[in-house]
Amino acid sequence: MSPRKAAALRDRDDSDLRGHLIATAAQLLAEQGGTGLTVRAIARAAGVADGVLYNHFADKEELLAAALRAHVDTVHRGLSPLPWPGTASVAENLIAYLAQGLAMHRAVLPVFASLLAQPAVLAQFGATPGGERDWRDRLADYLRAEHELGRLDPAADLDAAVAMLAGICHDEALSTLLPTASRPTPPTAVGSVIATLLAGIGSRSAPSA
User: Disulfide-capable partner of 156 in 46, 136, 186, 201 (CB 3.0 to 4.6 Å)?
Assistant: First the structure.
């Protein structure tokens, strides 16, 4: 580590250094996953002594949970804006939502999969609120708004629709982690998925909306 970098790190206040450690760990998670990621590796990448991490976190699990949350929030912030209810057609809008969901899951699920052997990290992550609204929640809000606008069947099971679209995202992302069973969803299939879904929940009076 260069003297200039060492001096800069020494001059950081506690909150700034904590954020630096989280950002460093989040970058390592995104690049290489959590399997085998050690405190020493994180400290070296951050340019600090190993023991410094324990001045800010109770253990490695707490740091990795914070880093995982930071990674997920970063992915959400990088997603394209989603269409508003009542604009374009429901089919076009849901294609945009599903395409974004697929992109989001491709970015985060491999990192989650690499941490399956560390349930304490995932438990702490689940107990930590995110700084960005989750894609699934945005999708649910969108469908409820379209339902209120009358552009979906009044009897539509919106929770089931959200679960179906989220399940497709999980299946596609997880399949890429299993080379022998890989079956990624091609872009042309996204429209077919939405058409099939809308056959069940679309407005009966305006099926094209």
Answer: 201
